[in-house]
Amino acid sequence: MERQGLAELHTHLGGSVSSDTLWSLAHRQGIALPVKDFWDFDRLVTVSDPRGVPDLDALDAIYHWTELIQSSPAAVEVSVHGAIGGAYRSQGITTLELRFNPMKRNRGGERDLDHIILAAIRGLDVASLEYPHVRAGLILMMDRTFTPHQNEIIVEKAIRWAPRGVVGIDIAGPRPGGARYDYAQVQPMVEEARAAGLGVTIHVGEEGAEMGRAEIGEVLELLRPDRIGHGILAAGDAELMRELRDREVVLEICPTSNLLTKSLPDEEAVRDVFRTFVDNGVLFTIATDGPEMMRTHLRDEFDLLLRIGALTQDELTEANTRGHEASFVGGAHAAQPNTPVGR
Ligand SMILES: [Zn+2]
């Protein structure tokens, strides 16, 4: 693992930037903050209570602040550059995919979307000069609270900027009214992205019990993703696990995040999920979801899984190798606009 470096495929830009950088960015831009002391701010922009947050809505409230502070080209550039450099220096991460929703960083249309995305690409470019051993790419995220038209624009941008380092698309966000999300409305966009050579990963199966499981099935059928963000609810569902295995979908599992958001109740549940996936041949990789916000590191995730007996050292190494292999950066997913990728 040391030799090849670590791979992190699931981390949000809003959760990947250190509090001190966000604090400086907020001040530099004159953003009105509800707190005046740095340590209060640190608690505002991270999951500071070791018992976690009550639910995903509470996590969204934290994202509100980091996204607001990152809502300018200058702030996005500093954030992307800082996240890639930090991941390499602190964790030896040599394959990194950073995901963000550009439309949650343009102050409701006040800032130009292309400027926001190009700023992220500048951060990526500078980081790639400073850290030539790191392969990094950007994933643009759609949102479940957005209209299909808004999501369409995000995918169009992802395709447009694919030659410059956008490697995939994703969808996340709360479900309006808590109702099941209709993934059919983003199916045409996902197909377009795939045809343009972009990787497809979808946030699903993180929470919502029965509904979450039904959504995993629907996503597999309708959107045919390469990877799934979380997907932990598939553990124990024989049919879903068979589907995941047959389609060789790689789950991006974020143990500490799942504990902090109460998606998994305790370490025993984490262990059960991993053992079930190993026993059923479901592919997965380990990620943080956002190390700064979750107050963790990728190495801490590996240590946790080893300590609680979720995975052996060999299985951890295998999961990390899979992370490098399943990355959308380079390889089969190298951006080739308008060139369909066969599968
Ligand atoms: Zn996530």
Overall description:
The structure is a single chain. The chain is of the alpha/beta class and 343 residues long. It has one domain (6-329): Metal-dependent hydrolases (TIM Barrel, Alpha-Beta Barrel), CATH 3.20.20. It is 47% helix and 14% strand. It has helices spanning 19-28, 38-44, 56-69, 73-91, 113-130, 148-160, 187-195, 209-223, 238-246, 255-260, 267-279, 291-294, 298-307, 313-326; strands at residues 6-12, 93-100, 135-143, 166-172, 199-204, 227-230, 250-253, 283-286. The chain has an eight-stranded parallel sheet with strand order 1-2-3-4-5-6-7-8. Helix 6 packs parallel to helix 7 (187-195). The longest helix is centred in the first third of the chain and has 19 residues, at 73-91. The protein is globular. It starts with 5 loop residues before the first strand and ends in a 17-residue tail after the last helix. Residues 332-343 have low confidence and may be disordered. It binds zinc ion. Zinc ion binds next to strand 1.
Descriptors:
eight-stranded parallel sheet, 14 helices, 8 strands, disordered C terminus, binds zinc ion
Low-confidence stretches: 332-343
* Gross morphology: globular
DSSP helix fraction: 40-55%
| Ligand names | zinc ion
Number of strands: 8
Task: Give the CATH topology.
Answer: TIM Barrel
> What letter string, H or E per element, gives the SSE order?
EHHHHEHEHEHEHEHEHHEHHH
Q: What amount of the residues lies in strands?
A: 5-15%
Instruction: Please identify the top-level CATH class.
Output: Alpha Beta
Strand order within the widest beta sheet: 1-2-3-4-5-6-7-8
Q: What do we call the CATH homologous superfamily? A: Metal-dependent hydrolases
Number of domains: 1
- Structural class based on helices, strands and sheet pairing: alpha/beta
Give the averaged pLDDT, no decimals: 94
Sheet with most strands: 8 strands, parallel
The name of the CATH architecture is Alpha-Beta Barrel
From the alpha-carbon coordinates, what is the Rg to the nearest angstrom?
18 Å
Q: What's the number of helices?
A: 14
> End-to-end span in angstroms?
29 Å
